[in-house]
Design goal:
The protein has two domains: 82-287, Vaccinia Virus protein VP39 (Rossmann fold, 3-Layer(aba) Sandwich), CATH 3.40.50.150; 310-414, NAD(P)-binding Rossmann-like Domain (Rossmann fold), CATH 3.40.50. It has helices at residues 70-73, 86-102, 120-126, 140-146, 158-168, 186-196, 210-215, 232-241, 272-284, 289-315, 329-336, 370-375, 388-398; strands at residues 8-9, 22-30, 49-55, 62-64, 66-67, 110-114, 131-136, 151-153, 171-177, 197-208, 228-229, 244-252, 258-265, 320-323, 346-348, 366-368, 379-382, 403-406, 412-414. The termini are far apart. The strands form four sheets. A seven-stranded mixed sheet has the order 8-7-6-9-10-13-12, with helices on both faces. A six-stranded mixed sheet has the order 16-15-14-17-18-19, with helices on both faces. The chain has a four-stranded antiparallel sheet with strand order 2-3-4-11. It has 417 residues and is α/β, with parallel strands linked by helices.
Length: 417
């Protein structure tokens, strides 16, 4: 099946082309989450785009109905680096261990990572003596190459796939971690994977899991980078349309809850884990529009509760800073209208490229986390709340004495974990 998914508004499902998309929750117009602003740009117009969380009753795919040009969403100077997040590094090492044992990888095998960023996942394979190749469109590719992680800089497509096979051979395993839901030309990507992958090879993808998103009210995972929000039934449909089979799946804790799936060329049966997960998805209401809209209403309730909590704290004359400024947090800030009137500043680790800039849409200054320990504001909003327990312990050890605010799934004030 060949299908071009257009840039701009779409009125058809990204997998099955069904036309009856249901809007589960509208976030209004929001900026691109990684478009941090310089001080000079605060005086200029800021572009925003429709952000609507939709559902296809035909195949079960949760998705956006507006796609921004990927060159705007993932520009050359894209600031995100996987190597700055310890949780991801741990997950990548675990994934490398799992795949090495599961598929008996040797030094002769080639691992290809699409959307490889700074090469953090591939480093885990390289350390095992396994051949690696990354494909990454942004300047993170330069950093990876400088660290000895062989990376092709470019947007993955059939042409790059063919060139890579000629030069490096076929891949035993192709991975896409937090990238398979990001690319609009989905069917072209799978064609490229088909070109690069050995006939008995395995495609492994990790994406944020719709089940965890809904049950954990993770509204901040909905932003323009994430075009699709996967559960298993639509993935089975996708692979059946493209000559692959989904053969296995497992849930993992990364990024607030993700689904790791395994696919092979040709027709193959699904594992018992796949069937058990589908039953759990059905029980959770992931294929029920009415139930999904109930989750959407609960997200709206959480938004209102968070606004009330922060406003109450601010009216008492207290100061509120934010811990972390992950991309996902800008949906939360924009949707709840939490701006620099409520949050004094957001703290990032030393070395973060976001330091000295301002959050898109809400214009909160991003500063070095040292300021948190110097100022000791009364409250700290944990924007990286999906790793909140770990962060709170770290911040306490580093000397922060105030109280923490966890924004989701139930907004609350926390002293210690």
């Amino acid at each position: 099946m060949t299908k071009k998914i257009p840039v701009g508004h779409i009125d058809k499902c990204q997998i099955c082309s069904g036309k009856n998309l249901e809007t589960i929750l509208s976030f209004g117009h929001q900026p691109i989450v990684q478009n941090y602003l310089t001080e000079e740009r605060l005086n200029e117009p800021e572009i925003t785009y429709p952000l609507n969380f939709c559902y296809c009753p035909n195949c079960g795919l949760a998705q956006l109905d507006y796609i921004i040009d990927p060159k705007l969403v993932f520009p050359l100077n894209y600031p995100y680096r996987t190597g700055l997040t310890k949780m991801l590094i741990r997950n990548f090492c675990s994934l490398a261990d799992t795949l090495e044992k599961k598929y008996h990888l040797t030094a002769k095998d080639l691992i290809v990572d699409i959307g490889s960023n700074d090469g953090s996942l591939l480093k885990a394979f390289k350390d095992k003596g396994i051949k690696i190749l990354g494909i990454e469109p942004t300047n993170a590719a330069e950093e990876a190459n400088n660290k000895g992680i062989r990376t092709i800089q470019g947007y993955f497509n059939e042409k790059i796939a063919s060139q890579a096979v000629k030069r490096y051979g076929k891949a035993k395993i192709i991975t896409m971690t937090n990238a398979f839901a990001h690319i609009n030309n989905l069917f072209e990507i799978i064609k490229g994977i088909n070109i690069m992958l050995d006939d008995d090879g395995i495609f492994v993808s990790e994406s944020q899991y719709l089940s965890d998103m809904m049950q954990g009210l993770e509204l901040d995972t909905i932003y323009h980078e994430h075009l699709r929000f996967y559960s298993l039934k639509p993935l089975i449909k996708l692979f059946s349309l493209t000559g692959f089979s989904l053969v296995d799946a497992e849930t993992i804790s990364a990024a607030g809850g993700s689904i790791r799936i395994y696919a092979k060329k040709g027709k193959h049966p699904a594992s018992s884990r796949v069937n058990k997960l589908i039953k759990a998805e059905e029980t959770a209401g992931l294929y029920d529009v009415k139930k999904l809209k109930q989750y959407g209403q609960r997200m709206i309730n959480a938004k209102q509760e968070l606004m009330a909590l922060l406003t109450n704290c601010k009216q008492k004359g207290t100061r509120i800073a934010a811990i972390g400024s992950p991309a996902r947090s800008n949906t939360l800030l924009g949707f709840t209208h939490i701006d620099s009137h409520l949050i004094d500043y957001a703290c990032e680790k030393s070395g973060s490229p976001k330091i000295g800039l301002f959050t898109p849409g809400t214009h909160i200054p991003v500063v070095d986390e040292k300021k948190l320990f110097e100022d000791q504001p009364e409250y700290a909003l944990v924007l990286s709340w999906h790793i909140g327990e770990e962060l709170i312990k770290i911040m306490r050890k580093m000397g922060y004495k105030g109280k923490f605010i966890m924004p989701l799934p139930t907004p609350k004030i926390v002293i210690n974990i």
